[in-house]
Design a protein that fits this description.
mainly beta; Methylamine Dehydrogenase, Chain H; four-stranded antiparallel β-sheet; 11 strands; globular
């Protein structure tokens, strides 16, 4: 009996040691394909080149990335809380801000409180704040705003960008 217990303890220690020496190299991803009704969430294991889909999200809930005005899906990651924030328009053009669990792909909440197109999202890991680059009702005028993560509302406008088209702006740092 003692030999079996020692063997089990040795196997556990060996397994823990091996796991620490070979950390998992995975990338989580969100994508859509020819299925017009879902967006998929999963992970790509860089060691095996295998993609594992473990969640599908209905576009009626999270918006349809194919309806985007610009070619990049507004998406950002909060590593402190393992959350993904995504913005996409619904089939009526209304912006949906979605909060997704980054490890399970489960949809946690959605907000339809921002009426204009969200061009990009960025999460500041140090200040723990969500920022968005948002179109306005005026041509060639956009704003950078802080988004309240509890209700999806714009907390404050940090800056107004005049006389430039959103496609000319690639990124920003809050």
């Amino acid at each position: 009996m003692k030999i079996i217990v020692i063997l089990i303890i040795t196997l556990i220690i060996t397994s823990v040691n091996a796991a620490q020496q070979n950390p998992s190299n995975v990338l989580y991803g969100l994508f859509s394909d020819s299925d017009e009704t879902h967006v998929y969430y999963g992970l790509l294991d860089l060691n095996t080149s295998q993609f594992d889909i473990f969640s599908s999200l209905n576009i009626n809930d999270v918006g349809n990335p194919k309806n985007l005005k610009y070619s990049v899906v507004p998406l950002t990651y909060d590593p402190n809380n393992e959350l993904v924030y995504m913005a996409a328009p619904d089939n009526n053009g209304k912006t949906i801000l979605s909060v997704i669990n980054a490890t399970t792909g489960n949809l946690l909440s959605t907000f339809k409180t921002i009426s204009n197109t969200i061009i990009s999202l960025q999460y500041d890991i140090f200040q723990k704040q969500l920022f968005a680059h948002i179109e306005t009702n005026f041509e060639n005028v956009t704003v950078i705003g802080e988004i309240d993560t509890s209700n999806g509302n714009i907390k404050q406008i940090l800056g107004i960008i005049n006389n430039t088209k959103p496609t000319y702006i690639s990124s920003y740092c809050p």
